[in-house]
Write the structure tokens for this entry.
Amino acid sequence: MNLLTTTTNVHLKTDFGCKSLTKFIGHKLRQLNMIILLIGAFLLLGAAEANATVTLSIHNAGCQDMKVYKKSWGYETYKATISAGGNWSCYTSYNQEYVFRKTNGSYLSNYFCTNSNTQNHNCDSGGCSGGGGNCGDQLAHWNLNACSAGSSYNEFTAATNTPTGFASVSASIFSNLGDHSCNYGQSGEGMCHAIKDGCSWSNNDNNSYKFSVTIKPTTGNSATLSKLTFYESAPSSYTWVGGGSGDNDPPSKYGVRVTKNGTEIFKQVDIATTSAWSLETLDFSADPDFTVTSQTTFNVEILGYCRQGTSGYAVWDVDEIKVYGCSTNVCASQGGDTDGDGVCNNNDCAPTNAALPATPGTACNDGNANTTNDIIQADGCTCAGTPSCNLTATFSVPSGCLTNSYLIFADANDPYFPPNNPNYTYSYDIQPANTVAGLASVDPRSVTASFNAPGVKTVTATITNPAVPNCQIVKQTSFTVTDCSPCANQGGDTDGDGVCNNNDCQPNNPAFPATPGSPCNDGNANTTNDVIQADGCSCAGTPVPVCDNVTSGGTIGFGTACASSTSVACNTAAPSITDCVTPSGGSGVLESIWLKSTTSCSYPTTSAAQVMAGLDPHWSIIPGQTGLTLSPGVVSANTCYLRCTRRVGCGTFLESNIISLTTDCGGGPDCVNGISITADNGTITISGLDGAPISSVNIFNAGWGQAYACFANCGATQTVNVAAGTYYVFAKYYTASYSLICEKQLTVTVTGGSPCANLGGDTDGDGVCNNNDCQPNNPAFPATPGSPATMATPTPTTMW
């Protein structure tokens, strides 16, 4: 490091302005209190001295070229042009000012920066338009600089902008569930929060960052939410502002989900994270779901997931969240809106008259003295009235009983006959419609109606004279339909069983009431002899005992030693199978069945009933064997045995362990004798895997996490390095067509073993496993924080 050159690693986006940077650096220097550098005979106390030099590095984060000028005594001197995405740096004096312009000469936002011990500036020269096309107005910005660690997120409010064409733009706080911490962000401060450990996305996860933006376009405009940008970092170590630092298990993936007024419209998952700060951009501009014409709320979830590691914190850093959008005149491509009534010319029946289109039915004047009740028609522009006509009618229907048929006829002033009359048309609407049981035409003028419920009925008759335009008359009458049946005053007889509802225990079921003592079904599987009770409706039976089944199926083994496997000569009687541990739990008589298989030593995947019916591909029942022990007799093939036990009266069998018997009768590959599984110091070796056309191996640790697996590519022997502990090993033989022949299972205990066996090894031999080693090929690292180091050119270090 040059004696009079100091650098401070600070990231800044131009949207904040370097005025804010000076305050930020001062805040950080107050946190650091005092930095003392003793080099040779010089002592630098606090910030750099006034005549010190600094390294100024500028990155153009925009999408067009940017010009840099040095400012002195009010004058600007051109220094460089930085292409989009490019970088420029120089050594300059402490407290020197620089300004930034777009290529058209306009200044960038918050355009001047005082170089105060800063190194890096990220300046957005613009031109990206926020999304696709020219839709790039910034709507909301969460800079996270006010971060205060804890469970409250009230400090994370957004700065919002309401561009032309927007009636309003609002945004929620940037929040999460649980505590958050503050880190050194991409610009100023950022924040971090816990991630989801699992490697699959989940909606509304408690660990997702959440916020919402509500936009409302002005009348005649649409509004588009075009782009979301943010910075993310997934480092392997954390550094908290004003706090500690240490190991981190960052996420390897993140995803983004957007809902509109509660309905999902966008989701992108399994996006790779980066260890250093990375600008992430999601472009919605081509998605029509993000363009609206009324007030709409977009809710956003950003979730880091798929934890890398197991020993440290598991958090993810974010900073600088921005949402972009724009507004478009909806009539721009539809002929405009000449009269400004909000209806585009192409759809406006009167494009120069703001009063039209009007709501159909609105009063108007059609200019015809021979019409009345002039109103706007269905097209919203045409005005028409009802031609005058002298149509009259009389209409009445007499009341009667529910069992009657009713003639409904509105008698117009001219008779329907003779044929030279204008053939009036009739229509009838009867309410309540759900009480009409039947409706039949008598002639073009009348109908007969029947009803399924009593009460007042209202009939509206509409009579039209087609000889006169709009000549129509509407008449209405009401009449009463009475229930004249014996049950009329006793609630009726809904189910028609002859018992009035008031006396019917089930008025909607004609089967009840029934004769007490009649058989029935009370729906309770734990009763028998179900009969109708004295009330004629209740059904009850005699309770039967409830099943109290075993809770353990016990264990079995060969001979008095209760061996889990044994071998016999071909066609030789096998040793007796002993009841090593009797099934326990529950009460009642035990009931057992025995199963055998010559193709599998894995538990059946079918039910006991399916096995008994011969529907299991591997296992079959041994007829007549219902005791707790079994004499297999003479065997001529490798066989596995399984006992299933339950209490009499219960439906479910509980299984014992599975034991295996091998014989030398030949007939194909033999897993028990052909496969060898051994455990050594830090290794598990499986040999004999070439004894069949295809083989597979699965090794699980004591918590059933997979430690190793191969299938059809295992070779003859596999030696697997593992840490000390208990492991479950499964080795299987298959035919060339991938049909299972047999399998061998063994539980082994491994002693010793490399502590880095499951952590990527230790390539550089420095005692730090590769998964936790920041430089796995360099034994000098990791080193003690604070140790001296030589730096030719300062390099930014990711922190949070």
Summary: The first strand starts at residue 36 and ends at 39. Residues 722 and 757 are 5 Å apart (CA to CA). Helices lie at 18-32, 608-612, 671-674.
